[in-house]
Specification:
Elements: H1 10-21, H2 29-36, H3 40-52, E1 56-58, E2 64-66, H4 69-79, H5 82-85, E3 87-92, H6 98-105, E4 112-115, H7 116-123, E5 132-136, H8 139-148, E6 152-153, E7 160-164, E8 175-177, E9 180-182, H9 185-193, H10 199-218
Parallel strand pairs: 5-7
Antiparallel strand pairs: 1-2, 3-6, 3-7, 4-5, 8-9
């Protein structure tokens, strides 16, 4: 039976996001494949590996269910290296106030998704960031953001960082928080876990929010 060599590789992580962002749903392999845009064969290989590691089981209806969501999420987060797996373009804005930069971002129509400490600051203010970081889907979207925020390219140490993601899956189930586009809390936690400058501390705060949302969902809240 074919298995995935690495359940944390970029394409395989799409399956993880699907399961972890919808932890109380039951899935067929085909539905997972359609949901995250991978082949049925590939989705099957990843689920076989997840089943062997006891992160998922098949229920009485032969549907896949997640059984150890927190354990899987934490293991993925410990593996993921945000600063090494993505490509970054550094920019500078003369606007030093983080709140005002984010406020301006809320008026941008381009396809982006805020992440790391700036994302955590919007979702659950805990650590005040010094850099605003966001995934951007393509060059046209990036150029729109550069123009809208009046950004100036810089070699290093900018206060705005546009991120070319390691896989398009980072945009799965993005959320809107008061007009600002964000990655899902699952992606946010994974990106923060090995991030420097109090990233792990902020990640734990996001994890508590994830736990609370999952608990409320189980209770029908």
């Amino acid at each position: 039976m074919r298995k995935a060599k690495n359940i944390f590789e970029p394409k395989a992580s799409r399956v993880l996001r699907c399961l972890l962002t919808n932890p109380n749903e039951a899935w067929s392999v085909r539905r997972i494949a359609d949901e995250v845009r991978v082949s049925v064969g590939y989705a099957h290989a990843v689920t076989v590996s997840l089943m062997e590691l006891v992160y998922i089981v098949r229920n009485e209806s032969n549907q896949i269910e997640l059984v150890n969501p927190i354990k899987l999420l934490e293991r993925w987060a410990s593996y993921h290296q945000y600063l090494h797996e993505n490509r970054f373009d550094e920019y500078y804005t003369f606007e030093k106030n983080i709140d005002k930069i984010i406020e301006k971002l809320g008026k941008v129509t381009s396809h982006y998704a805020l992440t790391t400490l700036s994302g955590a600051y919007v979702v659950s203010p805990y650590v005040r960031p010094t850099v605003v970081e966001m995934y951007v889907r393509d060059k046209d979207q990036k150029q729109n953001i550069v123009q809208s925020l009046e950004l100036k390219p810089i070699i290093s140490d900018g206060n705005v960082r546009l991120v070319q993601p390691y896989d398009e899956g980072v945009f799965y189930k993005t959320q809107d928080v008061e007009g600002v586009k964000m990655v899902s809390n699952v992606q946010l936690y994974v990106d923060l876990f090995n991030y420097p400058s109090r990233g792990e501390e902020a990640a734990q705060n996001i994890l508590e929010k994830i736990r609370a949302n999952w608990s409320a969902s189980l209770l029908g809240g």
